[in-house]
Design goal:
The structure is a single chain. The chain is α+β, with helices and mostly antiparallel strands. 37% of the residues lie in helices and 21% in strands. The strands form 3 sheets. It has a 9-stranded mixed beta sheet. Strands 14-13-15-16 form a 4-stranded mixed beta sheet, with helices on both faces. The protein has a 3-stranded antiparallel beta sheet with strand order 2-4-3, with no helix packed on it. Helix 1 crosses helix 10 (323-331) and helix 5 packs antiparallel against helix 6 (201-209). It is elongated, with a radius of gyration of 27 Å. The termini are far apart. The relative contact order is 0.13.
C-alpha cells in the first residue's frame, strides 16, 4: 500500500511559480556579483563518495549525512556541503592552476538536522571560494562580496525593498584557545561547542558547572556575551587577559574598522561567541542576517587546513548564501509578475505545421508564443492569460487580432 506518494520527505518542499521566480532573481543577482569580481563557476556532483566528508577532522556527523550505496556497494553521500567537494576538485584537477583561484557555485546541499526542528533537508546555495591566499585582503574581499549580496540582491531596483541587514564577525581561534586549555574530554568539548553554536546559554552554564569553577570555565561563560560594537574588544581584553587571544583581538579590531569603512549602511556586529556548526573554519567567521528571517542567510569564513586533508596545503576563505532564505525575505515584500505570452496562435485542423513555423519566426524576434490547444473561445483564453495578440491560421489566410484595440 502506498503511503507517501502524495507528499515530499520531511525537510523538503515543492517550489511553484512566484517562488521559483524569486529564487531565480537571487541566483541571477549573486552570479552577476561573483562574475564582476573575477569568480568562475564550477559544478560538483550531487553524489560524492562518503570519504570526501569523512576526513580526519570529522566535520559532519554520520547522522547528518544522506547516505546510499552504488552498484559496487561503495558508500555514497548526497552532497551536504559545497566547500569540501570544491576542496577535492582544487586538490586534484586544479592543483597545478595558478593561485589564487576564485570559484563560485550555485547548487543544492542536503543534510538532516537533528529532529529537523523545522529546518530544511534541502537548501539551495550559491557561494564563493577564494583559494590560495591567507592575506587580510582576501578576507576583506570575501566580506565585501557578502555586503554586495546583502545590498544588491535585496535593495536594488526594480524591487527597492530597503530590507535592514547586519553582518557578524567572529574568530574561532578564541574559542579554540580556550578549548585547548580546558581540562575536559573530547566529548565534553564537543558538547560545549554545540551549546555555544546553538546559543543555548542556560544549558551551557549548567554544563560548565560540571567542570568546576576556574579561569577557563569563567571565560567560556562570558564568551557568548561578548557581542556588540567596538566596545566588545575592550571587554574581551578584560575577560581573557591572554597574550595569544589579545593578538587575535587586535587583528579583529583592525578588520572591524576596515569593514565599517567599507560599508556604512549596514550594521557590523562583533560576536566572539560565533562558532559555526561546520567546524573546518580556522580563523575569521562571518554570518549575514536579513530583517524578517531568524537565521543567517550568509555564512562563511577562513579554512586554511581543509585542502591539506585532500593533499594540497593551501589557505582558503569563502562564503555561502542560502538562496531559499533570501528569496523568502524578498517574497514577504515583493511578488514578481508572472510573464505571459505575447502572442497566441490558433491553428485550424490541418494547419499545425504552418502554425509551428509562424511561431518559430515570432520567437526569433524575441516574442513569447503559445499555441491554443483547446476548442473553447480563444479570445477568452487570451484575455484570462493577459495575451494581447491572437493569430488565427487557416488554409487560406493568417489573421491577426489585437485584443487591446
Amino acid at each position: 500500500m502506498r503511503r507517501y506518494d502524495l507528499i515530499t520527505p520531511e525537510g523538503t518542499r515543492d517550489f511553484l511559480f512566484e517562488e521559483c521566480a524569486l529564487k531565480r532573481i537571487v541566483e541571477t543577482r549573486t552570479r552577476e556579483i561573483f562574475k564582476s569580481m573575477g569568480y568562475t563557476r564550477v559544478i560538483t556532483p550531487g553524489l560524492e563518495f562518503l570519504d570526501v566528508f569523512r576526513l580526519n577532522s570529522g566535520y559532519f556527523s554520520q547522522e547528518e549525512l544522506c547516505k546510499l550505496t552504488d552498484n559496487k556497494g561503495r558508500l555514497i553521500a548526497v552532497r551536504p556541503d559545497s566547500t569540501m567537494p570544491i576542496a577535492r576538485v582544487v586538490s586534484t584537477r586544479l592543483k597545478d592552476a595558478e593561485l589564487p583561484l576564485r570559484l563560485y557555485y550555485t547548487q543544492p546541499v542536503y543534510h538532516f538536522a537533528p529532529s529537523l526542528k523545522g529546518k530544511s533537508t534541502e537548501i539551495n546555495q550559491t557561494g564563493i571560494e577564494l583559494i590560495g591566499s591567507d592575506s587580510r585582503m582576501a578576507d576583506i574581499e570575501v566580506i565585501s562580496v557578502a555586503f554586495s549580496v546583502l545590498t544588491t540582491v535585496v535593495q536594488n531596483a526594480p524591487m527597492n525593498l530597503k530590507v535592514n541587514y547586519s553582518l557578524e564577525l567572529g574568530d574561532v581561534r578564541i574559542f579554540r584557545e580556550l578549548m585547548h586549555k580546558l581540562n575536559a574530554t573530547p566529548a565534553q568539548k564537543e558538547e560545549i561547542h554545540s551549546l555555544i553554536e546553538s546559543k543555548n546559554y542556560p544549558a551551557l552554564n549548567d554544563f560548565l558547572d560540571t567542570l568546576g569553577d576556574n579561569k577557563i570555565t569563567r571565560s567560556l561563560r562570558k564568551l557568548p556575551t561578548l557581542f556588540g560594537g567596538e566596545e566588545v574588544f575592550e571587554r574581551a581584553s578584560n575577560v581573557f587577559q591572554d597574550e595569544r587571544i589579545q593578538e587575535i583581538l587586535d587583528n579583529m579590531k583592525a578588520l572591524y574598522h576596515t569593514v565599517c569603512a567599507i560599508n556604512t549602511e549596514g550594521k557590523v556586529v562583533v560576536d566572539l561567541g560565533l562558532v559555526n556548526k561546520t567546524d573546518y573554519y580556522t580563523g575569521l567567521v562571518i554570518k549575514g542576517y536579513l530583517e524578517g528571517y531568524g537565521e543567517e542567510v550568509i555564512s562563511g569564513g577562513r579554512y586554511d587546513k581543509l585542502l591539506d586533508e585532500f593533499g594540497y596545503d593551501v589557505p582558503a576563505v569563502g562564503m555561502a548564501v542560502n538562496v531559499d532564505a533570501v528569496a523568502n525575505v524578498i517574497g514577504k515584500k515583493y511578488t514578481p509578475v508572472q510573464p505571459c505570452a505575447d502572442v497566441l496562435i490558433v491553428a485550424e485542423n490541418g494547419c499545425e505545421a504552418q502554425a509551428v513555423k509562424t511561431a518559430e519566426l515570432l520567437r526569433e524576434k524575441g516574442l513569447c508564443v503559445e499555441h491554443f490547444l483547446d476548442s473553447e473561445n480563444a479570445e477568452n483564453y487570451a484575455q484570462n492569460r493577459g495575451i494581447r495578440k491572437i493569430i488565427f491560421i487557416s488554409k487560406d489566410s493568417e489573421k491577426e487580432v489585437n485584443l487591446n484595440e
